[in-house]
Amino acid sequence: MNIAAQRGHSSNLVGMPTGLLASAAFNDDPLPLHIRGVHESHARLFGLLGTAKSHGEAAKVFQDYMDETFGLLQHNAGAAAPPVRRFRASYLRLLKGWGYDSNSREGAVLKGWAESRFGLFPTFHKTALTRFASTAWSRYVEEKMASRFHNNSIYTQLDLLYEFCQWALARWFRPGQHQVRLYRGVNDFSEDSLLQGQAHPRSGPVRVRLNNVVSFTAHRSIACEFGDYILEALVPTAKILFFNDLLPHHALKGEAEYLAIGGDYRVMVSYL
């Protein structure tokens, strides 16, 4: 079966038809999204976040909760000893792996999470994913299910990261806003597929099908460092998983990076 002919699963965990969620129409007029059961299962976290007086305080609450809930910090013997990170799957390790290479095993896990929660198939992992019965698809499935990343409820960690991101955008960063203008630099359209019937653009508006997790940046000048073509898009805040200022310490700081859920986007292309 051709992946391009079927954008995703018939069901997801956000309570919206996958076809609508994947469409450019959703991006034009987005609706709020929430992963089913996350707020209910982690009511203590969101109760604590509600008492925070600043985003910095809220970020500390979130990271302390994640460390405690998923055992991401282990203390040495002695009360004064500094904490030592365990070699366990964590959301921060996935972000770091993505920062090095979005086609890494960590990247496959992030794409697998987006497939599971939002129902969207990835379109690229090391190479274009065009058919289910293919070596490329089998390799993606093997990497997204690697046991080293699934020993610590990693999808639940990513659920909480997404919901904290949504909470922070609505509370501190983008209150009342439903879209943010972001940029993506590319050298060609091997990863970002032009939709059928469109010629390769030099400039102007086009529709592209982006991978189910995709990187943007808030600054056009940074996007220019990654390719000669600059894609400018209005990205729904509801599709943002992570952004530069969400946490005080992470591996994606240098590029003002946003991680977003993909699908079909209307973009403005310009050539340097």
Describe this structure in words.
There is one protein chain. With 272 residues, this protein is α+β, with helices and mostly antiparallel strands. It has one domain. The chain is built from 10 helices and 10 strands. The strands form 3 sheets. Strands 5, 6, 7, 8, 9 and 10 form a 6-stranded antiparallel sheet that branches. It has a two-stranded antiparallel sheet with strand order 1-2. β3 and β4 (127-128) form a beta hairpin. It is globular.
List the helices and strands and how they pair.
Blueprint: H1 18-21, H2 24-28, H3 38-41, H4 43-49, H5 55-70, E1 73-75, E2 83-85, H6 91-100, H7 105-118, E3 124-125, E4 127-128, H8 135-144, H9 154-173, E5 179-186, E6 193-194, E7 204-217, H10 220-223, E8 229-236, E9 240-243, E10 257-271
Antiparallel strand pairs: 1-2, 3-4, 5-8, 6-7, 7-10, 8-10, 9-10
Helix pairs in contact: 5-9, 6-7, 7-8
Keywords:
272 residues; alpha+beta; six-stranded antiparallel beta sheet; two-stranded antiparallel ribbon; globular
Give the number of DSSP strands: 10
Fraction of residues in helix: 25-40%
**Structural domain tally:** 1
Share in β-strands: 15-25%
Summarize the structure.
With 272 residues, this protein is α+β, with helices and mostly antiparallel strands. Helices cover 35% and strands 22% of the residues.
